[in-house]
Design brief:
The chain is mainly alpha-helical. The chain is 56% helix and 3% strand. The protein contains 18 helices and five strands. The protein has helices at 4-11, 65-70, 80-100, 103-108, 133-163, 165-186, 189-192, 195-229, 250-282, 285-296, 298-305, 319-330, 339-346, 357-360, 372-384, 391-398, 404-409, 425-433, and strands at 54-55, 61-62, 73-74, 236-239, 245-248. The chain has a three-stranded mixed sheet with strand order 3-5-4. A two-stranded antiparallel ribbon has the order 1-2. α3 runs antiparallel to α8 (195-229) and α6 (165-186) runs antiparallel to α10. The model is unreliable at 1-50 (pLDDT under 50).
Amino acid sequence: MSGAYGLDLAEVSKSNAPQVLDVPAAPGVSNEKNEKALYIPEDSSQSQSREHSFTDPDGKEYPTAEEVSTLRRVCGTVPWSSYTIGFIELCERFSYYGTTIVFVNFIQQPLPEGSTTGAAAGTDGQPGALGMGQRASTGLTTFNSMWAYFMPLVGAYMADQYWGRYKTIQISIFIAIVGHILLIIATLPSVIASPNGSIACFSIGLIIFGIGTGGFKPNISPLIAEQYEAKHPRQYIQVKKSGERVIVDPIMTVSRIYMYFYLMINIGALAGQIGMVYAEKYVGFWLSFVLPTCLFLCCPTIMWLMRNKYARRPPTGSVLTKALKLWGLAMKGRWSLNPVKTAKNMRSDDFWESVKPSRLGQAKPAWMTFDDVWVDEVRRGFKACTVFLWIPLYWLAYNQMTTNLISQAATMELHGAPNDLINNIDPVALVIFIPI
């Protein structure tokens, strides 16, 4: 299993995920999707805590301050468009993990005697193709994990700054398809016969494949929640058949959506990993790359069919760009050849205070379109990033499941089981325990 499992889990809380509101907005604020302004009865325009609730032109009722603190909260109905995005994610994860799970054997193990596809010779045989050893397989597989983590930064930036999520996902899908095709070519029997040519084609395909994955992953998880948030951006009142008044909470609903979403991730990954290791062992590597590609083709098909059904938001500019510009402005005059002094300067009390718009006044740059509160949020964000300093230690051990653990399993008595089947214990446990 790749380290991207952890990436998937983290993505549900990315900064570019849709933000739902706990209380109604000010009068006249429009819903981006439906363009329906809220209506407030004249006698309740002074305060939300008055006896009247907000309503919209369709008669949807929004809670007062008192109701927000007293009424029971429930989940809303998950829109069917979110389920289609969940299936898209399932297909993409099947294709990603179904493809990458066989990388180690393809690169490390030699071509079995009498085989042209890399399939094992008999039940207890070991599949292989290029025979380049454990060092080469670990290096390329680790590079793929690094590439899969780095490229989402680029994909998220392109979506926020230029293309929007939907367009970025579509472009990334077609890039990934090109990568899939190159990987398939690298596993054809006639190409495997020339290991140097095969590994060259494989490496190029790996890079292109990672670019597509990087554009897809950071944008699909916010898109699935936007399908609900666009129609129900804030809490509203629902009257049950029993007469009970409850608050339909978008935060609870989005949490449920992400539970389903993460379940789809693990179902797709698990099915891809288990299925493709048997395809590799008994048929050949070409099949273990072709089948994921075929399922991946469902992604652009569904995205195109649903193009007029999905809620989409236009790009609003990259928060990351402004945050880095703000940090760079704060660092002016604080750099030193002595790294200890530079670190002390960064921790000074006025580091962030000195770049607040209220302090800069007329001297603030044109890109500074935010207020002091946003600067405080950036400060907290940078401080929170120190937690991530410990993550490499965790992944250093965790990612052994996709490299050295598979190599080690190849030296054991397997009794017909593929050596790259062992790391599926982890996703099996996830699929079982997440619902619990």
